[in-house]
Amino acid sequence: SRGSAFGKSNIIAADAVVTGDLRTISPEQLLATRARMAEIVFAHLPRTSAEIVFDDGYPPMAPTTGNQELLAHFDRASRDLGYGPVGGVDPREAGTADISFVAAAVPMALDGLGLMGTGGHTVEETADLATLAKQAQRVAVLLHRLSSSRPDLSPQR
Prior knowledge:
Elements: H1 27-42, H2 65-80, E1 116-118, E2 126-128, H3 130-149
Antiparallel strand pairs: 1-2
């Protein structure tokens, strides 16, 4: 996104449009945030008007006991491969993830299992191809262990 302005600095714009996104940790937090934002917008100044429109984007993905359990299994796989510990990211520092669309429907879920890099979602984003083999090995060990140890996840024979 980008913006531009022109004219004199002491003139109030007739219209302004602002876009953004909300990233919350739970559906309850999303609803509360939207309600508070609507309160602020609806309390606009006299002789002005304002409106706010929300579009659903990525749903929130709340931390759960199941997610922590799965992360612990992933961490163990990483350590056993000699790649060191893997920890969770503070949800305030995380972005959105495709897994968020199904996270509420499954007992455990993880994000960030693919290629790693820097500069996420900016023009400076790069992919570190050297991480691909490690990540694939971590995931392969995790999936093998889960399918071998959990009857509900084992392949049908």
